[in-house]
Here is the input.
Amino acid sequence: MLPYALLLAISSVVFTLVERRWPRHPQPVLRRSWGWDVASLVLNAEVVGALVATGLVFLLPVAMVVDFRTLLPLDWLAGRSVGTQLVALLLVKDFLQW
Here is the structure.
């Protein structure tokens, strides 16, 4: 069985080829507002997901919350820049969601 990421990549290529061959509304691949597409993708996939995950923590009973500090010491990350901590947060959030 193929991994999900490979299936997603294959379906993206197939969809792009079909859309280029028989477009519903002809448009270039990179429209003038492609930056907004990327920004909304990042906002919806990462920022909103992190906010929802953070909000859900407060709804869980205390017994269900795992103290990850005992599983994975993150003292080395505390001294890093906020940008590095944000990247680590998004990577861990994606891994836990997956």
Notes: The chain has a mean pLDDT of 77.
